[in-house]
Amino acid sequence: MSIFNAFNASSSALTAQRLRMDVISSNIANANTTRATVNENGEYEPYRRKMVEMEPADKSFQSFLQKATNTSSNPASGVKVSGIVEDEEPFKLSYDPTHPDANEAGYVQLPNVDPLKEMVDLMSATRSYEANITALNASKSMLMKALEIGK
Fold this sequence. Notes:
46% of the residues lie in helices and 18% in strands. The protein is an alpha+beta fold. The strands form 3 sheets. A two-stranded antiparallel sheet has the order 1-2.
């Protein structure tokens, strides 16, 4: 077991949470964007909410076997981003016949972004980021104390 396992786990989590905060910020910034992409028919579509998917950094069979038998030599392997996916929730419809993107019935398709949900997700990502900084600082402090003992 390396003395840097805690640093590696915290740094991978910091990177993943930072990306999550960036994606959430993009969602909030595009909450009213009605012309983000072009679909197969050549028509404009609103912005579609994006989400970050994460998974354990070590997904090998050996790591799962070691966890099951409690013989894991690397308990803190970290996390990695497996992808950024689009939310398949349908777009919101709003009646506004004066809007340039309104259809024949006067309805405008709005992005499937809920600013309240995004703010909650942003707070969660921020708290996770702060918790990982605290864990990183605690690991650093323990290593510094160990070096002082060695004097």
